[in-house]
């Protein structure tokens, strides 16, 4: 039982490391603002087109940056959930489905 828990913990750490290697992008204003993050939800960079500064005010810029960040984090969350689901499915498969837990429900 503890071997399975240790294996699950090890797999979770592997997924976390892998998520940090996957890049996602969030954009606003047709790419004038671009946020690059990892699927592990670490913001790597924020780029703003040079000519965009002259066409907007501070408040609008802040809102658009927030929008781009949220788009990037939304993509990161989707990838994170998919990776976690795949790991869980793999773990359940290696345990023969639900293993002994299935017996608790009369299976």
UniProtKB/TrEMBL annotation:
Keywords: Cytoplasm, DNA-binding. Binds to DNA and alters its conformation. May be involved in regulation of gene expression, nucleoid organization and DNA protection. It is found in: Cytoplasm, Nucleoid. This is Nucleoid-associated protein FYC62_12320. The lineage of its organism: Bacteria, Pseudomonadati, Bacteroidota, Sphingobacteriia, Sphingobacteriales. Homodimer. Belongs to the YbaB/EbfC family. Its main location: cytoplasm. One of its GO terms (cellular component) is cytosol. It comes from the Bacteria. InterPro entries: YbaB-like_sf (IPR036894), YbaB/EbfC (IPR004401). SUPFAM superfamilies: YbaB-like. Pfam families: YbaB_DNA_bd.
């Amino acid at each position: 039982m503890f071997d399975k828990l240790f294996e699950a913990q090890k797999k979770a750490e592997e997924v976390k490391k892998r998520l940090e290697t996957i890049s996602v992008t969030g954009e606003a204003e047709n790419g004038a603002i671009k946020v690059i993050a990892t699927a592990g939800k670490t913001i790597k960079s924020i780029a703003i087109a040079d000519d965009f500064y002259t066409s907007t005010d501070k408040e609008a810029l802040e809102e658009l940056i927030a929008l781009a960040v949220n788009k990037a984090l939304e993509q990161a969350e989707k990838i994170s959930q998919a990776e976690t689901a795949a790991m869980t499915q793999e773990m359940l498969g290696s345990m023969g489905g639900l293993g002994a837990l299935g017996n608790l429900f009369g299976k």
